[in-house]
Structures are given as structure tokens and as C-alpha cells.
Amino acid sequence: MGFTLTYRPLATIKIWHHYFLDDNSGDFLGFNQQKREKGLQNYQITEFLRISPTADTQKKLRGHQVLLKVQPDGFVLAAKADPADTSKMFNPLGSGDILRFVLTTDRDDFKHFTNLRTNANELVYLCNQPHQNTDYPFISQWPPLYDGGLVDGNPDTFAYPSGAMLVDSLPSPGSLKIANQATDANFSDNAVWKIQQTGDAYTNGTAYSEGDRVHWSSGGNESIYEALEETSGNAPSDTSKWVKVIDLPVCYVNASDVKTKLENLYQYQFGAASLVYRFTVTDIQNTVLLEKTVESEVAGELFQMDLSKLPSALLKITVRDTATDTIVEQSEGVLLHQGANKGKIVGIVELTARPAATAYQMLNGTDEFQQPEFQVFFKNRSTVWRYLDQNENEVLKTPEPRPLILRGYQKITHNGVDLPNPDTGMIRPTPQQDYSEVFI
Prior knowledge:
The protein has four helices and 29 strands. It is mainly β. The protein has a nine-stranded mixed sheet. Strands 1, 3, 4, 5 and 22 form a five-stranded mixed sheet that branches. Strands 23, 24, 25, 28 and 29 form a five-stranded mixed sheet that branches. β19 and β20 form a beta hairpin.
């Protein structure tokens, strides 16, 4: 008697980059259905991003019969279902299993068109663990709150760079703002901190077509709604006419998601002789991956611990004084082996099967598929556009930063002539502002 193999989604990860999705009319999330569909016809994440399982994850995918399928707007993990009960995974992931995926890019200009600042020793870290300061469906963390303690009073240095993102409150922010220049200014300074807009507010009496999108505030929460059919005078609270698309603000990948890269060799210098310290390395589920107890012989002794045999992962390293049972030092970072990964490392995604937050679970306690759809949003970078003549004299510049977009033309006119929009190849940063330069 034959039977059919069934694979069901374990998790879906949507990856949206606004440089490729926005156009000259505004934010992709606010577009109507027809315009979104047209934009998505040309959207391929492989144009700017590659997704590869880490070496240990490749083994787990094979062992648990999980398929990785890259799609135009992200990737899907599909697992073999139990033939006797297709609501359950056939060879379920264990509570300690973590699936890890490396994000790389072949684009030399990725940092130019992405509103995210990382140096050579940093990368993006995304996960579905409940310890994160985030809300479903995002697997990036919320941006930080304004911190006046970062302001040092030096007029030549700035606490926040151009493009910095902050939210008004945590853990449930009501708005997100982006700095249009490097600044020490308080978050309430609306000349510097601009609220992120994603479309038009609902207007009573306006005739909306099926697929149109609007902003709507209810109970202090702002969301994007989409019309299910033609309607006029029916507010988005009418669920027969409207469906909620996403709550606002959108949680873009930001500075809170940036982690330090760890070297294969961890080093610690003892401050005195005869100290007995325990060095413990754990993963995001607090599973102990490596542990050593060492006694120092002399002050200044250098202890080295080899991490090269550990998996590519976010690691926490804790140094504990065994005599007093106190933590002496604790650090966190991402160990990432280059391996077969090609291109520049953007970051890593870690997914666990059964995190404490129910909405983030891929499997429940009885191994049933939960099929979450996680979302990752990359914000496109905004720069001041500066037009120069052949002698590098400034002819014109925009009064405020403008978003960099791949498609569409943003009209800039000088002496009756329409000027070209900048490409992403020429970005000139200054302490206070980032410029896109165009020679005319």
C-alpha cells in the first residue's frame, strides 16, 4: 500500500528591503494592491542577499528531513509531516536544537543603500527567542530609547549618527523616528527626528478600492489596513470591509541588532595569582557548550580558550570566581566561521523550535506545526543629495535627506533642467551628514 510524503511549512521568513520596494511615490507598505504586485514582480532577495545554513544546521536539516527553499521575498523551512498525523512533524526538532542561517551579500554597495551602520568587527543578529525586546512577527529588536547620557557636550561629536532610529517607549513603542542628521538633540526635537511614514491616513467619506491601504489608529495603536472590497464611509474598524496588515511602527533592522564578532581564540588576563575562575560558554538557550576551570599562577597571566570547534552562533561567555561564586566578567558576541559562505557577511539568523513566546514557536509541545511567518525589514538609507560641477563646486543640494530607491525618479530641477537622481556608488560621509554626490 503506497503513501504520499507530505512536507509542511515549519517557518517562513519574509525579508523586505525598502531600497528595492519603495519608489518615488513613497513607502511600499502603503501602496495599493496593484502597485505592490507590480513592484514585487521585480523583487528578488538574491539580488542583494544570500541565505546559507551553517555546517551544523546542514546536518540537522538532513537528519530531521527539513528543506530550505529560497523564495523571491525570503525563505521557507518545510519539514516532513508524520504520515499518521500530518499536523505533526515526523522527526521533530528537539528542545535544544537551533537552526542557524548566514546572510551574505555580493553587493559592494549594500551598506550604501541600507540604513544600518556596522564596522568590520560587527554583524546583524536576528532570532525568535523571547528574551528579545520585540513583537511578533519581527525577529529584529526594537530600536533603543533616547539616552541623554550619551551626550558629551562636545560640539564636534554626536551621540546619534545620521539615520539613527529611536522609539518613543518600550516594550511597546507607539512611534519610530529617524534622525535626518547626526545629533545630540532630544528625541522630542521634530526638526531633527522625523516620524517614519508608511502611507496615508484613513479619511472618512473617501472612496477606497479593493486592495487600497490606509493608516488607522484605534485604542492608541496605529496599524495599516487593507480594503477587502470597494468601500466609502466604512472605517477600518469594520472587519467586513478591512483587514489589518501590520501594526506600526515597523521594526526595521537597527543598531539594537548589531553584535560583535568573536575571534576563534578567547583571551582573559588574570589580575592576581591563585585565583580560580570558571569560564563557561553558552548559547541562546543557556546550553553549556564549553566550560573550563583555571587557577592563575601569577598576576597578569593570560588564559586562552579555543572556540574554533563550537558552532557558528551567538555565544555568551561568563567568567565566575569559584571562591565567591560571583560573576567577574560577562561578554556576548557571534562566532561565525566563514566556511563555504561566499561574499560579505551581513549577519546570522537563529531559530529555535519551541521558544517561550507562543507566537514565535515553530512546533508546540506535542510537535504540531505552528507555521509562524517572521518578518525582517531593512530600511533604505536617506542622504542629502549634493550636485557638483566638474570643478567640484556645489551647485545645489537638497534641504533634507532623501531616500535612496532603485525604481522611480524623484524630481530635482535646477535652472529648468531635471537633474539625475544619485546612484549608490558615491556616498560621502561627514561627521554630521551623509551625502550622495552627483556631478553635473
